[in-house]
Amino acid sequence: MAPRPRFLNDIYNDYPDNTSTKVVELQAADRSYPGYGDRYVLLQWSNGKDAEGDEVTQIIQLSGMAGNYAYYYPLAKKQVAGSRIENTIFPLGNFTCAERERILALADSTTFEKTSVVNSCRTWTRDLLMAMVNENLLSMTTFNEIDEQVPLLKRQPEA
After folding, report:
1. How many Å is the maximal CA-CA distance in the chain?
2. Order of strands, edge to edge, in the sheet holding 22-28?
3. Which tens digit of pLDDT belongs to each residue from 16-30?
4. CA separation (Å) from 22 to 26, 135, 140?
5. What is the per-residue pLDDT for 6?
6. The predicted structure's pLDDT at residue 108
């Protein structure tokens, strides 16, 4: 099982997931992505609102940067103001608690090389989404739309 986050402003203990059906989304950084360079992606869903009325989202992502990647679970953070405007959001569908738990298990079993400078979070997310397709949690049509628009990266041999 993935380690708990220690340095990512995690508030999961205060705002855990619940048993309701929720929309799971893929968020791709920078709505005006020029098509080159890295582009961070993550999966997310709402765990509710905090006392100030800010949205708290549970996040599934490969954290870090080239040469220093990690996967942490569970992770919940306040939704950054403006992130829904500045980034591209792709709804993946409505998922039950059991289906979200399965997505988390798939994420935990999706391999990555911590020190990779070849494969990024977009590669890992592609592998995770394909695992979701293989388990009928995501349609191939939705996967192809995301892959075309983000785009996701295919796994390459490590150097």
Report:
1. 48
2. 76-78, 55-60, 41-49, 22-28, 88-95
3. 999 999 999 999 988
4. 13, 18, 20
5. 65
6. 96
4, part of any domain = no
Choose among 111, 142, 115, 108: nearest CA to 124. 111
Is 132 among the domain residues?
A: yes
Angle between helices 121-134 and 140-149 (to 10 degrees): 170
Residue 2 DSSP one-character state: P
pLDDT tens-place string over residues 117-147: 999 999 999 999 999 999 999 999 999 999 9
Is the pLDDT confidence value at 5 over 90? no
Range(s) of the domain holding residue 30: 22-149
- Is residue 129, in this structure, part of any structural domain at all? yes
Q: Would 49 be classed as within a structural domain?
A: yes
Q: Which residue type, as a one-letter code, is found at position 52? A: E
DSSP 8: S
- What percent helix, strand, coil does the chain show, rounded to 5? 25, 25, 50
